[in-house]
Amino acid sequence: MSESLLPLVLFAVTMFFTPGPNNVMLTTSGAAFGFRRTFPHLLGVALGFPLMFVAVGLGLGAAFTAIPGLQRLIALIGGCYLLYLAWRIATLPTTAPATDAAGEGKKAKARARPLGFLQAAAFQWANPKGWVIVISALATFTSPSSLDAGDQRLAQILVIVVVFIAVGLASSAA
């Protein structure tokens, strides 16, 4: 695995720093709410994606094979969640709302809030770019012979996860 560490890091930098749903949502949230209020969203992305990677790498694919409808159910739930997130982003205040005598604009701004940690972590399962990254990384940076050697596969997955967390935190913060 050591000979593929540099290519893995370059892969992660390329995947995490290029535009995608997470980067767009974090940029929008940071602009609307600031870094501090967006921080739970940032952590949800940076830690939720590696968690998804571990789940898929250690056998969610086998669950999809054993339960044919499971993948469709997750896709349906993910699609509904994407629509919800799109609505949340579309209704974010981009500028300070005009206030009337009753201060309704301030109330509307107070109700708006960025995604939380769990919402951002759950979004990773609906993120198409995330699935491409997971499948590509598993195919490229784990050895096929490790399918039977559980410990070796786990070690390879953990190395990838550490790289993904480090690069993901930097990308999300940027």
From TrEMBL:
One GO MF term attached to the UniProt entry: amino acid transmembrane transporter activity
InterPro entries xref list: LeuE-type (IPR001123)
GO biological process annotation, one example: cysteine export across plasma membrane
Main location: membrane
Coiled coil: none
Signal peptide (UniProt feature, chain positions): none
Protein name: Conserved hypothetical transmembrane protein
UniProt subcellular location: Cell membrane
Pfam family, one: LysE
UniProt superkingdom: Bacteria
Cellular component annotations (GO), alphabetically ordered: plasma membrane
Bilayer-crossing regions: 42-66, 73-90, 154-173
